[in-house]
Write a structure and sequence with these properties.
This protein is α/β, with parallel strands linked by helices. The protein is about 45% helix and about 15% strand. It is built from 16 helices and 11 strands. The protein has helices at about 15-25, 40-50, 65-70, 80-90, 105-115, 125-140, 150-160, 185-190, 190-195, 205-215, 215-230, 265-275, 305-315, 320-335, 340-355, 365-380, and strands spanning about 5-10, 30-35, 55, 75-80, 95-100, 120, 145, 165-175, 235-240, 245-250, 255-260. Strand 1, helix 1 and strand 2 form a beta-alpha-beta unit. The protein is globular, with a radius of gyration of 20 Å. The N and C termini lie far apart (about 55 Å). The model has no long low-confidence stretch (mean pLDDT about 95). It binds NADPH dihydro-nicotinamide-adenine-dinucleotide phosphate and magnesium ion (MG). NADPH dihydro-nicotinamide-adenine-dinucleotide phosphate binds next to helix 1, helix 6 and helix 10.
């Protein structure tokens, strides 16, 4: 069997390291390129184990240091956006795992699509900010997008082999995040350290805060709309605190398919990389004997306004999801530094959404400039 050549965009993060962990269990893969933003010690360690052809650091100020650390190897070192683009478009690459966090993933994802690569997509912000353009582009260039987000992987698996016309609705499950059991008054004073204690998943900081605000589910709502070509009214968010059912699909005969498993991202990561195959792995299987209950609740839009904001931004369409996403990234970064409070995140996003005029059918240039303008506006708000 020919080995698949993989580029990991964001190999030093939570998804990136879990991907390398599960990849190292098999001999089905070759790593073509690893990329990071600043954590060069971590990427050097990975490079010495996985021996990629190329290592890229996005932040150019770390380039010389990285080059020095890999000088005794034959590994090529690059930096900046041009480095990321080289890592995803090289003719040797079969699959690109987009595991960078944030809107920075947009340009390399577009480049990978145009190069006809298969995309294992973890970087949901790319679809939130530009899903309307990304999906037709993938079709045009014959690039397959395989979801890595656990909910979307579940939906994808439930839809496998089904006639899309028979899809009635999607149940998008949510853990409820760190503050599910707190009142609005209590949540108001919660700091990032507490928001970072996710009940079920160990993830990067940004997505863990997004889980606490339920913005993560809002982003996933938009992601599901674009990935599965459904109307927003066909997606229902269900809080399922155990994170065992990763999502469900209901067909028009009212038959429901669900995908279950332990909350371990290595399962959806390797599913996307191996698709359409499945192989043995070391992830511990779900033990039904130890499950006490699988419960479901309605999401509370009052305590978690970000979910409603995201659904409304999708309804407004145009540039609104871009503005929402950019504002959220800046506000979450400020919350992580204890510079703003929990509800300043949703309030700041709403201020940004009402400050800018909508642009329907935005181009990539509109999206990129709107993203920059929104970040500038929200940074001023934070000051
Ligand atoms: P992390 O913060 O753990 O990792 C982010 C990665 O992106 C790191 O390799 C980081 O490099 C790199 N990176 C950050 N900023 C830049 C930049 N400006 N330019 C280039 N590279 C950059 O994030 P996660 O792994 O948690 O999340 C990655 C994506 O996957 C997100 O979109 C998230 O929503 C999605 N996702 C994550 C899940 C999870 O379980 N973690 C689950 C489902 C989806 P460095 O280490 O140098 O900072
Ligand atoms: Mg998810």
């Amino acid at each position: 069997m020919k080995k698949k050549n993989i580029t990991l965009l964001g190999s030093t993060g939570s998804i990136g390291t879990q991907a390398l962990n599960i990849i190292s269990e098999s001999n089905r893969y070759e790593i073509f390129a690893l990329t990071c933003n600043q954590r060069i010690d971590e990427i050097v360690e990975q490079a010495l184990i996985f021996k990629p052809k190329l290592v890229v650091v996005y932040d150019e100020s770390y380039y010389e240091a990285l080059k020095g650390k890999l000088a005794h190897t034959t590994i090529k070192v690059a930096c900046g956006m041009s480095g990321l683009i080289e890592a995803v478009t090289h003719s040797d690459v079969d699959i690109v795992l987009t595991s960078v966090v944030g809107n920075i993933g947009l340009e390399p994802t577009i480049a990978a699509i145009k190069a006809g690569k298969t995309i294992a997509l973890a970087n949901k912000e790319t679809l939130v900010t530009a899903g309307e353009l990304i999906m037709p582009l993938a079709k045009q260039y014959g690039s397959t997008i395989l979801p890595v987000d656990s909910e979307h992987s579940a939906i994808f698996q439930c839809l496998n082999g089904e006639n899309h016309k028979t899809l009635d609705k999607i149940y998008l499950t949510a853990s409820g995040g760190a503050f599910r059991n707190y009142t609005q008054d209590e949540i108001k004073h919660k700091k990032a350290v507490e928001a970072l204690k996710h009940p079920n998943w160990s993830m990067g900081q940004k997505i863990t805060i997004d889980s606490a605000t339920l913005m993560n589910k809002g982003l996933e709502f938009i992601e599901a709309k674009w990935l599965f070509d459904v109307q927003p009214s066909q997606i229902e968010v269900l809080v399922h605190p155990q994170s065992i059912i990763h999502s469900m699909v209901q067909f028009r005969d009212h038959s429901i398919m669900a995908q279950l498993g332990v909350p371990d991202m290595r399962v959806p990561i390797i599913y996307a990389l191996d698709y359409p195959d499945r192989f043995d792995n070391s992830v511990k299987p779900l033990d039904f004997q130890t499950l006490t209950a699988l419960t479901f609740e309605k999401p509370d839009y009052k305590r978690f306004p970000c979910l409603r904001i995201a659904m409304d931004a999708l309804k407004s369409g145009g540039i609104m999801p871009t503005i929402m996403n950019a504002a959220n990234e800046v506000l979450v970064a400020a919350y992580l530094k204890d510079r703003i409070g929990f509800y300043d995140i949703s309030e700041g996003i709403e201020k940004a959404l009402s400050h800018f005029n909508n642009i329907q059918n935005p181009s990539i240039d509109d999206i990129l400039s709107s993203d920059i303008e929104t970040r500038r506006f929200v940074r001023q708000l934070c000051e």
